[in-house]
Amino acid sequence: MAKTILIVDDSSSLRRVVDIALTGAGYEVIQAADGRDALSKLAGLGGKKVNLIISDVNMPNMNGIEFVTEVKKDPAYKFVPVIMLTTEGQDEVKDMGRKAGAKAWIVKPFNPTQMLNAVQKLILP
User: Fold this and answer.
1) Domain with 31 in it: what CATH number?
2) Which residue range forms the structural domain that includes residue 27?
3) What secondary structure letter does DSSP report for 80?
4) First to last CA, the chain
5) Three-state secondary structure call for residue 2
């Protein structure tokens, strides 16, 4: 059965690029436009498991750090790996992401192969 990955980014074109790369590699993808949208999509899955989350940092309504902080409070998602895919490269922002629970950090513009390698390392077989 295909592993499911949630992509959270306010750029629909970026979500599409990531979606194409991931579905091409055999993953199932759920897209969300911001942290709030992502939380409501997770709540509406009805027990279906998300195996990995890829999130931007800078988004309206709820940014990526706030989203990761919230999602890690949920016992069902406490151990789900999170990759931050963002234009933010400053150490302070990366530290905030790590403290919130992010496992990897990829700076945009990104190489889809690099992203897939990170996904494969973090997603359990």
Assistant:
1) 3.40.50.2300
2) 4-122
3) -
4) 10
5) coil
Amino acid at 87: T
| Cα–Cα distance, 47 to 14 (Å, whole number) | 27
As a whole number, the mean pLDDT across the chain is 94
pTM: 0.95
Structure confidence at residue 125 as a pLDDT band (50, 70, 90):
low
| 2-42 tens-digit pLDDT | 899 999 999 999 999 999 999 999 999 999 999 999 999 99
Per-residue tokens: 104: 């990897």
Dist CA 15 CA 11 (whole Å): 6
Using DSSP's 3-state secondary structure scheme, residue 86 falls into strand
Question: Rounded to whole angstroms, how far apart are CA atoms 102 and 92?
Answer: 13
**Domains held by the chain: number:** 1
